Amino acid sequence: MTSHPTRSGAARLATLALSLLSLLPAHAMSQTALAAAPAPVPALAIVNARIWTGDARRPWADALLVRGERIEAVGSSAEVKKRAGASVKTVDAKGMMVTPGFIDAHVHFLDGGFALASVQLRDAKTKETFIRRIREFAATVPAGTWILNGDWDHTGWGGELPERSWIDSITPNNPVWINRLDGHMNLANSLALAAAKVSRDTKDVAGGTIVRDAAGEPTGILKDNAQELMWSSVPSASMEMNLRALDAAMSYVAERGVTSVHHMGSWSDLDVFRRAHDAGALRTRISANVPLSTWARLRDEVKAHGHGDAWLRIGGLKGFVDGSLGSHTAAMLAPFTDAPNDTGLLVNTAKDLHDWTDGADKAGLQVIVHAIGDRAIRTQLDIFARVANEHGARDRRFRIEHAQHIAPADIARFGELGVIPSMQPYHAIDDGRWADRVIGAERAKGTYAFKSLLDHGAKLAFGSDWFVAPPTPLEGIYAATTRRTLDDKHPGGWVPEQKITVEQALRAYTSGSAYAGFQEKDVGVLKPGMLADVVMIDRDLTRVAPETIRDARVMLTMVGGRVVFDRDGVAH
User: Fold this and answer.
1) Which of 154, 340, 406, 452 has its CA 20 to 30 A from that of 127?
2) Which element (helix H / strand E) includes 63?
3) Residues 483-520: pLDDT tens digits?
4) What are the residues facing 66 on neighbouring strands?
5) Which CATH fold would you assign to the domain 6-29+113-231?
6) What does pTM read for this prediction?
7) For residue 534, what is the enclosing H or E element?
8) Domain extents for the chain?
């Protein structure tokens, strides 16, 4: 069985090469001439700010001094001005907020970059809109170009799954292979199915589903491991197109205050990042994680070359236990409320997960596993407990990604076992629109249980799961503090007892994610000696109504003293 669903391989998602040439930003990189990242500022002082440092010894300050890549001083405006001297560029923040750079603990970075240039289906609220957007996009790309990504959400138009019959007539010359926003099921048109030789005679796949109509014909929907049937037919992108996607992704997240990402992907993705790193072109710090089943290869790689540096780090292994709630492939202890004969599925066996975790842990590598349903979470917690007990104490920082629907008895186990819940708060206000129908109100009480996890001593890390959700920490903080669903039908918050404070959410996006990535010695807090990863926001998030946080704007983003986004040119 595969250790990772198909969504994780950006190289396999990149067949938009021809259309991307015209659709990606003009500043995109090429394979032979990568644009170098800006140099660090010689020195820069920010004064008259509301600085949330994230440092427990001095949580608030009003000025800081950056010199080169690192922070030289944090303190009062008078102190910093005196230390900086008259020759240093000084930015008057005029009361705006400054925080450590946001660390997105879970992204599919290249997929996100490619998705920026693909058909946009996330907000399609009707079947007609879904079809129209595909038709319009298909008209912009050459015949034969595969149409990918899309990020559709069938709950937006009432829950009916799309079918190839919806789009065959409007895509006669283009294979279509577009994903639901969670990546756990895709829709193929007939051209794509034919290219992959998927038909009524194709056998079912363990850990996946080929959705069929009453006559036994595939409808075009393939879930989880069944998606693997398609990928060998999907052409790969060139290195140039991957680098262009990376450049687009770095620009996009910089505008949103993200300075570091934990990328969940493939070895080919790592090749792309290394090319950019060697060219001095990275503007976002990347912790690159590769499939859990390849732990032996990573062991040898780290032994030969180490874990990397502050710009590009390797050492994490990403696995999967189950699918997603929206696709009814999350592994649950009891049947889905709306599907009483279905408890979801495991995309990998418990034995494989144990063997991979065991081997990786013996090699001193970090294990990072996707588990969404309560049965999946319990399965992986049991594996982590067994492996840790067998191998003895060490600083292993096991992670469960998403940790969405936790059985009440398992919440305390995260803190007890030292397992990091790496969660995405935007999912709570998105899934909260419909999750009660799928698992019922009682089970929903353990869904996105941010506060309960913190109360039981867990170290929380926050991210986005981009491309699945937008890589916007300000929206994530809004989601964690209000839990108001996107449809505004829960103004007091969906499962409101799981709301957390702004500072708790900030910590999860900064020092919490830094800890989850073994980065806490360099980033995650603002104090002397740390790398100058700094974000300026147009308002103090701790002093405004939580409902207005999503309206806040990032004004300035620095990574290692490099200005990578400056909305009004204040640092120039």
Assistant:
1) 340
2) strand 63-67
3) 999 999 999 999 999 999 999 999 999 999 999 999 99
4) 44, 71
5) Diaminopimelate Epimerase; Chain A, domain 1 (3.10.310)
6) 0.85
7) strand 534-537
8) 6-29+113-231, 239-522
